[in-house]
Structures are given as C-alpha cells and as structure tokens.
C-alpha cells in the first residue's frame, strides 16, 4: 500500500502516528510509518533536544516528525506566575475538594509548573530545536503555525502539517503555506471539533489541493481502507498507541493503561477541563466531578491547564484506574490488549490489504 504521501515523507506505509512518547514514535518510524513526537510537555527546550538526540539514535535513519502546539487565539506570552494570578480562588478550592473526595493524596514533593508548551515563545523554541535535527515534518495542533515558522521550516526542507476540524480551517492552512492537512474528526482523542471523520475527510479532500491525512477513530485496517476510500492519502492515529508495549516502557505499568484497556467506545467525553478548549478524554470520576451540578465552568486556555497541572500529577501518582485524566478517542473501545508497535502496524497493514482485496471482489 503506497500513496503519494509515502514519497513525500520518505516512508514505506502511509501511517502517521502522533504520540507523546519517544519510545513509541521511534518504533512507529522503524516499522515503516512516520512517528511524530508531541512536544507540548517540554517546558524546557534543552530536554526536547536530548530526546530528539535519542530519536536520531533510535530510528535507524528512518524519517520522523514533531508536533508543536501554537494555538491561533490565546495570550501568547507571560510567565506562569502572572497567569497563576488570573485563576479564581473558587476554582482552586473546587479542584482541592474534588481530589480529596476522590481519595487522591497530595504530592510528597513539588508538582510540575503546568504545561507551558502552549505559549508561542515555548513552541517556537521547540521548532528551533527540531530544525537542528533531521526531522521530516513539523505539525501544529490548533491552527496554522505563524507564516514565519512555516517559511523557516521550508528553508530547512521540512514539511509542515496542521490539524483541521473544518474544511474552512483546512483552506486557510493551505493559504498560509501548509503542505499536509490532518482532517481530524469528532471521534478523536485530544482537542477535537464537532464534525465526524466520515463527513469531514471528503469535505477537506475536496477543499484543498494538498495531501490529506484522516484522523479520528482509526485503529483497524478497515478504518485505514475507509480513510483511503474517502480520499485521504494516509492516516494519522493518536489514541491507539497508548496501549502499546513501548508506551508502557515510557510510563511504567500504569492505572491509566488499565483504565483504557477496560473502556468501551461509550467511555469518552468531550470537555474543556483538560486545557480550556474542547478535548476528548476518558470518562472517569474526575471528568464526572467537573460535569456535576455546582462544578465551576472550566477556564480558558492556558489557565485551565495551569489550574489542573498539579492535580494531573497527583492523579497519576495515585494510580487509580477509576480516577484518570487522559485524552483518548472513541477508538478506545478496541484497545483491549497491550501489543508492540510492530504488531499493531503489521495487523493494520494486513487488514487494510485484505479489506481492499474484498472491496475489489465486490
Ligand atoms: C494522549 C493524546 C494527546 C494528544 N496531544 C496532542 C498534541 O499535543 N498535539 C496534537 O496535534 N494532537 C494531539 N492529540 C491528537 C492526535 O494528534 C490525533 O489527532 C488524534 O489522536 C487522532 O484521533 P484518534 O485519537 O482517534 O486516533 C492527542 C491525542 C491523544 C490521544
């Protein structure tokens, strides 16, 4: 199975995998897809530089990409300390009361400062570090990257992708110089729009003249074949890698993976509680507390993430499958065992071929 995207990106299979784990990203690239490392968690660009050095040593010379988060419309600068003053005390009380009610203990030491990767200054530092490495693709969530960032990537021979939840967004990405559009439907894990993948992908394919990757709800070869049938040149998958053995290698055994393995496709919710923008998360006692009567409205990005950053640390240390805060898409219903990235890729490719053969015989 080859499409024009394979030549463009120098990959064997048109399967692109977004992941926050370098172990998973490297394994996707080694398996012939394109591993794309999510950079938003790196508050310090020096840490990203070390991880990309590791990627260079562990991808067998195969291409890989990075994903940065430059939201089109948020306050772009500001030290965490100033932003912290904008968080209403009532919201902090609610978070503390909820954690106590859910039996999530305080941290023994210091928590994290919160994710600062949404700030343009930090995301730009990610781009600068990435361009010192042999990355093939820089993708941006939540809008087109600024035009000077696109130009800089192009000067380095690096392609630029951007996620789109509407055909209108895709048109504006291409007008800004974006090379590849990721059409990401409502089913997807993480930040997501309101249009389902089945409707969105052909709309975006018809709206732009650059390759389109289909995203949202993909985890089987039948879904890959469907994406190609809808006109996509390949797929972009995020959730499915969360239950790979390489993800366990990054995190250690976790209640989060246990919770994902037990979830059905009904067990997700689209909510603003993770970052302030609508994102699909696993439905747990934490998301339910925010949906209950009397809970405050989530704050806008980037304040909401600063509000819940320490709570996220506490929740992950408590390691309770009933209280998890994790982005995941509706495809979670098919994530029922831990497998290696290699096995996931082989199964996807095998089923895609079988599906295409079955369709040819109709
Ligand atoms: C845990 C998780 C974190 C994500 N974080 C980001 C991110 O930082 N940047 C981004 O562009 N997309 C992010 N996404 C969205 C993915 O890139 C991808 O579009 C989405 O997962 C595709 O749908 P699927 O979850 O059904 O595979 C995230 C998704 C998940 C599951």
From TrEMBL:
MF terms per GO, please? dioxygenase activity
What CDD domains does this protein map onto? NPD_like
Q: What SUPFAM superfamilies does this protein's entry cite?
A: Inosine monophosphate dehydrogenase (IMPDH)
- Which Pfam families does this chain map to? NMO
Question: Record's superkingdom?
Answer: Bacteria
For the keyword Protease, the answer is no
Annotated PANTHER family? 2-NITROPROPANE DIOXYGENASE, MONOOXYGENASE RV1533-RELATED
The entry's protein name is NAD(P)H-dependent flavin oxidoreductase YrpB (Nitropropane dioxygenase family)
What is the species of this protein?
A: Kibdelosporangium banguiense
